[in-house]
Specification:
This protein is an alpha+beta fold. 40% of the residues lie in helices and 21% in strands. The structure holds adenosine-5'-diphosphate (ADP), zinc ion and magnesium ion. Adenosine-5'-diphosphate is lined by residues 7-11, 160-163, 202-204, 213-214, 216, 272.
Length: 492
């Protein structure tokens, strides 16, 4: 069997969250609207209606192009992509063919610590289509379809990578990076299960070491990052089996069947000329003023990569924590607000790292369990920094902190309030701990003997006994000191 290398190129569609649609004044937000209530002659595709270019959408796509290091065309145009399908109201989509707005960019991805650059061929403007629902009439058993035109004409940005991706994991990382960038830019919700972020994967394989490409297959219908990953893995495997058994990979479009975990042939691949592209006669060419592009560039927000670097530099975080904390703009802002608050209230130099630990582990776990977002939890940055203050001053130890954060999470109360409610305090006073220490020593003569015979780890065991007896409320550092002090005194 030959050793193959996968070659992958991704086409990603993202809906823009502009206030109106791409070519008409209907609201672009359709998620909660009654079917067919956000429509007008333009997005219904009625003859005689005329489209108008949405400037906000063009601004958004330029932001995306700049974030992906693309060249922004000063001269661009729109084209009709013709195909018959019931979700396409006009019978064509207004897209961009030979003069896309953004070209020649890149996106860096890192897999297992290795960084690779994936080229971006183009980013162009499109419009979304109507939504079809296929149903069954329970009375007659007959199938029927419903058309909701609300989504028709919502601005879509298509981003096309070069065939530079070499594994399913790299494809997943690439998609996650792009999603994060869109969210940082604030131009799209980029949500795969809501359908505001969709991906088609072009997959081919070639013998390792070869520098020509194999025949590619386009895979569609994945609706999560996990399904993109699985679909690519499966498709690579399928093609390898075809080639190994002496067959030929056929250029076609295949659909991913989530339940079966396989791809299945949908149609033979259409060529560009099947779409009879021609310049959109109802829209003027688009001339983009370079001064406007410069202005947009000036106003670009901080992007994930820069923020990650800054988190490492400003907060002394390990790269791993910085990656996790910058995964969404909401979480990054939450973390920064927490640290600023903690520092303003006299937090130590190390409070940034402590904040990262509590945010990622305890809060992360609670958010996971409740299927919520960390930054949307009832523990505001102020409240979390309040808890960090109590931990830093030693009022609470880690076990009390864990109980406190859980209570805060569920009740929305301040750290001080839950400490009072639950009677949480770390016992650090040596007089208060003297009894428990004495009892642990009296009850464990073997551990004492071991320690006196030079086995220092026996002291740890005794500390554990005291922690147990105080239900985790004793300050383990103080207990450790007290135990060693007593045992050393016994050495005489
Ligand atoms: P088409 O003419 O079918 O639209 P393109 O060359 O425009 O093909 O590429 C469409 C997508 O397919 C791009 O993302 C590109 O990177 C990817 N692609 C092109 N050739 C290959 C290949 N041999 N293997 C995998 N992906 C490919
Ligand atoms: Zn409309
Ligand atoms: Mg193409």
């Amino acid at each position: 069997m030959t050793d193959y290398e996968p070659v992958i190129g991704l086409e990603v569609h993202a809906q823009l969250r502009t206030s109106s649609k791409m070519y008409c004044a209907c609201p672009a937000d359709y998620q909660d609207a009654e079917p067919n209530t956000r429509v007008c002659p333009v997005c219904l595709g009625l003859p005689g209606s005329l489209p108008v270019i949405n400037r906000e959408a063009i601004r958004s796509i330029i932001m995306i192009g700049l974030a992906l290091h693309c060249s922004i065309a000063s001269h661009s145009k729109f084209d009709r992509k013709n195909y018959p399908y019931p979700d396409l109201m006009k019978g064509y989509q207004i897209s961009q063919y030979d003069l896309p707005l953004c070209t020649n960019g890149y996106l860096d991805v890192s897999v297992d610590g290795e960084r690779r650059r994936v080229g971006i061929e183009r980013v162009h403007m499109e419009e979304d289509v109507a939504k079809l629902s296929h149903l069954n009439d329970p009375a007659t058993g007959k199938g029927y379809s419903l058309v909701d035109v609300n989504r028709s004409g919502v601005p879509l940005v298509e981003m096309v990578s070069r065939p530079d991706i070499r594994s399913a994991e790299e494809a997943r990382q690439y998609l996650m990076s792009y999603q994060t960038i869109l969210r940082y830019l604030g131009v799209s919700t980029a949500n795969m299960d809501e359908g505001s972020f969709r991906c088609d994967a072009n997959v081919s394989i070639r013998p390792k070491g070869s520098d020509t490409f194999g025949t590619k297959v386009e895979v569609k219908n994945m609706n999560s990052f996990r399904s993109v990953f699985r679909a690519i893995e499966h498709e690579v495997e399928r093609q390898a089996q075809v080639l190994d058994s002496g067959g030929r990979v056929v250029q076609e479009t295949r659909g991913w069947l989530e339940d079966k975990g396989v791809t299945t042939s949908l149609r033979s691949k259409e060529e560009a000329n099947d779409y009879r592209y021609f310049p959109e006669p109802d829209l003027p060419p688009l001339n983009v003023d370079p001064a406007w592009v410069a202005e947009i560039e000036e106003l670009l927000p901080e992007l994930p990569e820069e923020r990650r670097k800054r988190f490492v530099d400003d907060y002394g975080l390990p790269a791993y924590d910085a990656v996790l904390l910058t995964a969404s703009p909401g979480l990054a802002q939450y973390y920064e607000a927490t640290v600023h608050n903690a520092r303003a209230n006299g937090g130590s130099d190390g409070v940034a790292k402590t904040a990262a630990n509590w945010t990622l582990t305890e809060l992360g776990r609670l958010a996971n369990e409740t299927h919520t977002e960390i930054h949307e939890s009832r523990i505001t940055p102020e409240r979390l920094s309040g808890l960090l203050g109590l931990l830093e001053e030693g009022t609470l130890g880690t076990p009390q902190g864990k109980r406190a954060i859980e209570e805060m999470f569920h009740t929305g109360k301040t750290a001080e309030a839950v400490v009072a409610d639950l009677g949480l305090v770390q016992i650090s006073d040596s007089n208060a701990l003297a009894d428990a220490v004495g009892q642990a020593i009296d009850a464990n003569p073997q551990a004492v003997a071991d320690y006196l015979a030079g086995k220092e780890t026996a002291a740890k065991f005794l500390v554990g006994q005291v922690m147990k007896a105080t239900r985790g409320n004793a300050n383990p550092t103080v207990v450790g000191e007290l135990i060693v002090e007593r045992l050393d005194a016994m050495k005489g």
